[in-house]
Amino acid sequence: MTFDYIPKGVCARKFTIQVEDGVIRSVKAEGGCNGNLQGVAALLQGMTPEEAQQEAGRCLRCDHFGYGIFKGGRNTEW
Hints:
By secondary structure, the protein is an alpha+beta fold. The chain is built from 2 helices and 3 strands, in the order βββαα. The chain has a 3-stranded antiparallel beta sheet. Strand 1 and strand 2 form a beta hairpin.
């Protein structure tokens, strides 16, 4: 089964996720920071959708828009 997920609040526009036998087999993203998205895709492969949802809740927001979240974040945009 393949389905699309449209995220909110991140720079990726769409994730296409392939699930077979209850396990994520592949994740492809449109838009966003390529290196980070490749890492996320590699981490999610082999997880169940429930495990992926739990892990996604622990993710940090990306810094695409110039506002950091480390050490309290930045006060101004780049």
